[in-house]
Amino acid sequence: MYSFVLAIHDIVRWLILIFGIIAIIRAYVGWFGNKEWTDVDDWFGLGFTISLDVQFLLGLLLYFFLSPITTNAFANFSAAMSDTDTRFFLIEHSLMMLVAVILAHIGRSRAKKQEEDVRKYRTTAIYYTIAVLFILAAIPWSRL
Question: pTM value?
Answer without folding.
Answer: 0.94
